[in-house]
Sequence to fold (179 residues):
Amino acid sequence: MLAVTGNVNITSPGTVTFNNSKIASNTNSTGDAGNIQIDAKKLTLTDASEISASTTAKGKAGDITLNTPTLTVANGAEIFATTTGKGDGGTIIINAEKAVNLGIGVQDSSPILSVETSGAGKAGNIIVNTHKKEKNINNQVIQQAQGWIISADGRVILTADAPKVTPQSSSITHPNCHI
Fold:
């Protein structure tokens, strides 16, 4: 018999905050894990909160989709999709039109968004869609975040609208550029 798991859907017209909380969708069978989707005006994960989808068997890990104008993942919180079995890992999709703030308060290189495999299954993807020209990752501003990185275990896609630049003079020099 094929096991079927349920999806987790959270919808709020306001702010959703997870503080030392956990939402998980897992499978250890041939059935797929459920998907996790959160729709909120503002979404914050803090203090070791976790959103995860995983598989340890043939079933596929669930996908995690976060739809919010502003996403903040801080102080040891993390979002991950993993596989340690034959099933493929899930995909993390973030749709945040205003801001994506990752790693605030993190002092080491701990993962914040992660898709991993340690079994026969393929790792999922991380997709971050935003119209904002910059993203903050561990308090470092990334300007012109546009493009993709493809690895052997999975694909990470980071997209943003191309920045619009209007020169104010015939010569523009970055303040840290010494000629």
